[in-house]
Amino acid sequence: MSAPSRRLQERRSQHQRYKEDVQREGKPFFPFAIWHDTLMSFVVVAMSIVLSVIWRYSIPDGTDGTEAGLLGPLYSEEADPGTTNFVPRPDWYFYFLFYLLRIFKWPDSVILGTVGIPTILLVLLIALPFIDIRRERRLLRRPVAVVAAILVVLSMGVLTYKGASARESLGTGGEGLTDTWVARNNLPETARPGAMIFQESNCGQCHIYLGAGSQNAGAPELTAIGAEGGKGVDYFRRYVANPAEFGNNRMPQFASLGRENLQNLAVFLDASKGEG
Asked: Which of 43, 109, 209, 259 has the greatest number of beta carbons closer than 10 A?
């Protein structure tokens, strides 16, 4: 008998022994265990609905939602759609993926880190019961499985911790950050208005300047952008107004800033020659 046939026969005999054990010692999984799981799922959903209703309607009438009810306030402060200093962060169970974005940089390897690796691991996890069909379950007799499980737990733990403790700052900070940029990058006073516009326009969402901001969508660091040859104030003004003119279809157009603001921003970028 071939090896696949023996394996199939072993699985069938194991399943038959399992059915005999269930009939002799306990109840089958269906429908008893499924019914218990279904009932508990309804209980959890019902409790979530009840707590949500209590949380919503225990807030005193006529308030703005910041006063606490039985389960706390609706929100601590109203959302500001025009904010420039909010750093979005995922829920804690996505911190590992959040930190992978720091390891695998856009655009060359971000797909591998955020889609490829998690998908491969998930496929292996789903396939594991079909690959490992040995009846041995003692940990000391399964060193490969034990080591793999420990490595997975450690990796997820470290990535989650690193993602939770990672800190990002946007390119905003008001006059204090502008003073720092002027001092550290030896900027002239004529570049100060453009530095403020750089912050107010959320350029730090995609660009890094002297460590402030976050690099997204392959956007370059701009600390020493003015030191690159072949550019000037007029170039930066036209580039920021319409990046598509220069072959950049990822960066949005900022022509709506107006000619004066674009001029100030261009002066700031042209004066950015790098620290020292």
From this structure: 209
